[in-house]
User: Fold this.
Amino acid sequence: MNAVASYNFAYLDEQTKRMIRRAILKAVAIPGYQVPFSSREMPMPYGWGTGGVQVTASIIGRNDVLKVIDQGADDTTNAVSIRAFFAKVAQVQTTTRTTEASIIQTRHRIPERKLEAGQILVYQVPIPEPLRFLEPRETETRKMHALEEYGLMHVKLYEDIARHGRIATTYAYPVKVEGRYVMDPSPTPKFDNPKMHRSEALQLFGAGREHRIYAVPPHTEVVSLDFEDHPFTIQHFDAPCALCGAEGVYLDEVILDDKGGHMYVCSDTDHCEERREAGHVGRQEAAE
Amino acid sequence: MYVAVKGGEAAIANAHRLLADRRRGDRSVPALRLDQIVEQLGLAVDRAMGEGSLYDRELAALAIVQARGDLIEAIFLVRAYRTTLPRFGYSRPVDTGAMLIERRISATFKDLPGGQMLGPTFDYTHRLLDPSIVEAQTDAPALREGATEAAPRVTDLLGQQDLMEPDGDAEEGHVVGDLTREPLEFPLGRDLRLQALARADEGFLLALGYSTQRGYGRTHPFVGEIRIGEVEVEFDVPELGFHVSLGRIRVTECQMVNQFKGSAKVPPQFTRGYGLVFGQAERKAMSMSLCDRALRAREFGEDIVAPAQDEEFVIAHADNVQATGFVEHLKLPHYVDFQAELDLIRRMRAEHEAQSREAAE
Amino acid sequence: MSGEPLLRVENLTRYYGARLGCADVNFELWPGEVLAIVGESGSGKTTLLNTLSAALEPSAGKTLYRMRSGEWRNIYELSEAERRFLTRTDWGFVHQNPADGLRMTVSAGANVGERLMAVGDRNYGRIRATALDWLDRVEIAADRIDDQPRAFSGGMRQRLQIARNLVTGPRLVFMDEPTGGLDVSVQARLLDLLRQLVGELGLAAIVVTHDLAVARLLSHRMMVMKGGYVIEAGLTDRVLDDPREPYTQLLVSSILQV
Assistant:
């Protein structure tokens, strides 16, 4: 048996890349609208970022610099695996620095550092349909988007308030894009929603298993759904990052022992490193 | 002192090495050869080809070895490879009527032209574990000389008497869909639905087919015919102006004869359920045909009451590569979202406690 | 209120293949008027209701509706978006089985508030207050607002369905056997409520029923159907007290007078 096929630049064949780019263009033209695309079988499992990988593979060029994060960290295993994949099939430069990257592929977080014009953020999306858990049928949700029938979405929020006294969605918090389409921002914590609004960067969303691509072009209005009298709020942490002292950033809880000892550190590892290099110090460091 | 976790790359590299070691196992035991898998684990190879959607025995065998025998992992490998292959076009429809038949049975007639040929089946074996098969010499099967009797399809025989609904023609100008090239949109045409079923997980279809037999969307099935054998794959070459044969593949075809339907205008006819898979995969072909018929409920104006009749449910969950990807993705870190939930639940509990304290005072 | 009717039905016909559902139905409906469509099962009354409410396409004929703008539209020529909007705001449909007209796994308050949220209301407090007001109007206790209809009795579910339909102030409500499946005392209470609401809100309604007592209590006019055709029509009291057609006479005489 002869050697297995050699791969095109960035793994996908040109035909496929063209098909995906066309889908991306359509998505950019209709912000927040889920464009169906023919997702290819990739060498990593569905559900592990194939959508994001296909989007990145379709837009990446030899001069791009790629950053891949998962849970905000460059060094989590799946981010490492995807970065290695692109290093192998595209031989592009990779980085852990947000400032240096032209393409950032992410799972579940938006970098703390404000993104700039010319940067592209590629989100990995498991379930693109914000109405999915309210209405399981694709035939029905398609119609609801087409006819702008989003009453059901607010019913869910109403129920949360009636039951818990507050809107109980903490991540994958639905947003309205450019006043028209309701979109799922991917399972980023609602803390990150405001970063999507009028970003200078291009935001692309890839859902491989569900065969959908959507986009938020730069400077687009992205508003989290809420009620006038129960406005959208983000999470607040009681203490700053124990390593670098950062405030107003999303923190990971780290369990230190089995007696309830824990500490909070920046989820965005690059941000934390940058701050520490600049001399910022958190309580843990200060204590030593 | 807490140090941020690093070393994901090293961890992965070590995991790969350990995997390679376990895959090989005890070095004093001879390594498997691909031809052994192809020859002696043929049905596993057939399944990897069928659900992998790629006919190549050796490749499927390699996938099975690389996957350490995990068939869904093997199917994944085959699919991922398939994606990279250049596409020349679509073959002509294979003519199962012209099959070189190895096995052919019908439950609807005691005897019929072409006869009932059992072929290499487990059907009438007694399921008693037999260690002797490992050591024993296996004799060559007896050969019978002579021309084979023509074996017309049972559905064609019934069709000649107008007892079976016609196979169905696609609308004028209909282009056959390809679900590996375009995203699925519900409701599906029958071509795309059958494609999805042909690639579907055998266990899933088996369970659904079983459910129809137990009353969850009953279709009164009879096995009109199962035939297994080789068919010619022919390809139209535009430059040549005629078609050429690319070779032969083994397939399993199952035609179910189901509950008859009639109306005021059309006299009653039996209805069809169809299954076609690569290799010898009878269970899959039969399950596929049961599900095919159940999913035609809408066409026949039948009430959709059972899971096997719900097209979106069946087709959206039938692909085991997609399914395993998503199920197993739960292993990936989700601690950011979990942190968001922890935050909420802690606040709600704090509020609850504050309220209880107030109430107590 | 203008001096024009709200609905004009012209030669409305619906076949199922070769089988007749309903044929040649003609009538007008005025604002605030309740029309009962009466007949035994198989008479075509349900087909007629479903065709009138655009759940089914007719085989022939028109149903002209005077929109809030004053414009007359043939409802079968509306786009799907227009039709769905109409069904959510200006029309109501009360199903015989309340589970068909409710979201069973969502609270009573959300069931009533959904239409408001669907047309853009974004104030939780106001939506909840409106829901409470409606629950009160249909005689459901305020403390049930957060309960799911799954936990309600049949009569309560039906009253909730009515509230859900009326919250956007529709001008026309279709009702399919609204008291069917409820026991007699519950029926009476529900009919009283319906009569009160219809009167207060000036609703036009088309009520399908096999029960002449329901027709007597609720409707101003009625049509009697048999075999898909309207065989008699007129003021309810007149038709029930002085039926002209032999079939109507049979219907009327075979039930207890109310």
Observations:
- The longest strand of chain C covers residues 19-29.
